[in-house]
Amino acid sequence: MKIVKSVAELRALPESRSVGFVPTMGALHDGHLSLVRKARAENERVVVSIFVNPAQFNDPEDLRRYPRPIEKDLAMLARENTDVAFLPIHDEIYGDRFRFEVREKEFTKMLCGATRPGHFEGVLTVVMKLFCLVRPTRAYFGEKDFQQLSLIRDMAKSFFLGVDVIGVPTVREADGLAMSSRNLLLKSEEREIAPRLYQIIKTAADAGVARRELSTLGFRVDYVEDVAGRRFAAAFLGSVRLIDNVEL
Ligand code: PAF
Question: Taking the model in full, what pTM does it have?
């Protein structure tokens, strides 16, 4: 596996018939690996980026404590036969000092966008930059972040990027908790009730019932909403924000 940091090194890679790209912020788990495996099965070259993108964190404390186990991540990627691990340099990615950004004006106002101002602008901007650098044939995103997946798919279409944006089903722990890098931050008593988020949004009669059941259990509910045939939820346990969604 080649570890590439600079834009110049990335540009110097030989052409490839197809490039499968998995953008990540590291702290990799089986959910990420399912994306890498799908990319591996469908492309000649697999590129995985690890970049904790400051532009998408609206809470500086959340950015500060985001897990960064880089050596472990690289070992996991090497085991999956990743060809290129791209670890971009902050000042190269944001050489423009955030002068330019990608903005969407409808879906980013709802769900996670309503309570995390600037979050999706940060996500769309960095993904656009990464797409321009990596020039993937296909890019892979988890359905746990369904709103993100849908926005990136629409962005690729709107800007004629020619990238096939592929959604991959959420990978869950045995008790149903959606895998997430933030799960590492849960205290043991929080980890015990965390799987109820999935169970409740799957079974509650409507979003209001789900909100009440979650609050009773001790979740601080950000939102539970039914949109376009899916139920989306975000809720805090302590200071950890969990999200999930199910098809209705
Ligand atoms: O889903 C993530 O890990 C991030 O939002 C992404 C897509 C890598 C952009 O920073």
Answer: 0.96
